Amino acid sequence: MKIVSLLPSATEILCALGLADSLMAVTHECDYPSVVLAKPHITRSRLKPDLSSKDIDEAVRSQLESDAHSLYTIDRTLLARIAPALIITQKLCEVCAVSYDEVLDAVEELPDQPEVMNLEPMSLGEVFDDILRVGEATGRPRAAHMLVRQFEARVEAVRQTVARAKTRPRVGFLEWIDPLFCGGHWNPELIELAGGVDELGRRNQPSVRIEWEQVRELAPEVLVISCCGFSAERASEDLALLADQPGWEDLPAVRAGRVHVVDGAAYFSRPGPRLVDSLELLARLVHPALFV
Q1: pLDDT, tens digit, for every residue of 197-206?
Q2: What domains are there in the chain, each with its CATH number?
């Protein structure tokens, strides 16, 4: 079965189901597991490289308001040459992948119409449901069910461990620094499962821009920086922007040395198998004494 993945998370799901050999092409952002590094790239970004976070935000807004509507393009010549039976894409966020309309437009040019599967999870449970859907569509339902059961067991292990906690720290979770964005989609749920409280986040909803005063008012006891699409190293470059904000040194998380910069690109930004890794990482940050 020839499969094209237009999502890093879908690529990880397919590989977790043992379908790496069926992947004929992936996105330019697909980098895990290592076997996909040799796969042809079928997308590219319209954004210029090496932009600042502020410039990226402005470019994203400008691009989405233009006629292009998408930050990415798809290689239609390669798509026609592959002639896939299945394309996995998404409608959830035009900032994250080729727009759904552009995918459908490219598919209409193909002589043999492939199945186009849309993954649009907003919660951890919906991510698990997507794994099952991909398993059904690719003839791997048993492997998918086994994978989900393993993930559910790991989630339950975290839940039972944090149930022993005597406190639930206030957690500030930022998905972007310049400008500031709160956590959205599945991330507030992960914080709750990890034994924290996220009063800024938007559970099962897209993240939104927030003001620094909202962070100060929250007075987070733990601050997690998970810039969407950024590695921890890249996100750390913007940390000085937060440190320049009024009242930064007075935040409980700063005073306690509990400001953590994590790899959003690998974990919290990708609704795939490693979202469970994200939960386990977060639980260790929120309740380190319980996860030694």
Answers
A1: 999 999 999 9
A2: 3-120 (3.40.50.1980), 148-290 (3.40.50.1980)
